[in-house]
Amino acid sequence: MGKKVAVVVTNLFEDVEFTSPKDALEKAGHEVTTIEEKAGNQVTGEKGDATITIDKSIDDVSPDEFDALLIPGGFSPDQLRADERFLTFVKQFADAKKPIFAICHGPQLLINAEVVKGKKMTSVKQVGVDLKNAGALYEDSEVVTDESGLITSRTPKDLPAFNKAIVEALA
Fold it and tell me: Fewer beta carbons under 10 A from the terminal one: N or C of the chain?
């Protein structure tokens, strides 16, 4: 039986860091739901290769409805971390020990939700300093899996390993 995966995303996400994991998850039989400020909004990736029509408003969802959370990179996580509703949503996933998948700049949202301390993680290089400063155990590897269920990767070139890890985590 497929799992339900929430994706928090807004404009200027890294196109392939959304489309590639989404395709891998759907191919494995999982349901992907996009979440932003308002259902029906159109958000566009920073490269302009992907446009998403948002499925649900952050005001209309609860982590209880989902089995896992995906946070694509790009400038999207930086924007979302300014909104307390998204921080609360992410923190509730972490508190419930549900799998969280974040790539590239995605961990910025986790830092602001204050859920990285003591967790093994990776990210794009420039966010690595922020992770270390927030108490994460930073590792420069293509994919890092923490015992909490947190799976992180660095950049689009790591997507094959990232996609494999997240699909296996939900198997």
Answer: N
Give CA–CA dist 140/153, Å, rounded. Answer: 9
Active-site residue numbers? Answer: 104
Please report the pLDDT score of residue 10 as a whole number. Answer: 98
User: What is the distance between the alpha carbons of residues 62 and 56, in angstroms, rounded to a whole number?
Assistant: 11
Q: Which residue has the tokens 């419930």?
A: 96
pTM of the complete model: 0.97
- pLDDT tens-place string over residues 95-107: 999 999 999 999 9
Give dist(CA 131, CA 135) in Å, integer: 6
CA angle 52, 24, 109 (to 5 degrees): 60
Helices (H), 28-83: 76-80
d(Cα 12, Cα 32) in Å, to the nearest integer? 19
Q: Where are the alpha helices (DSSP H) in the chain?
A: 15-27, 76-80, 84-95, 107-112, 125-133, 159-170
- How many other β-carbons are positioned within 10 Å of the β-carbon of residue 37? 16
Q: Using CA of residue 163, residue 77, residue 139, residue 99, what is the dihedral sign?
A: negative
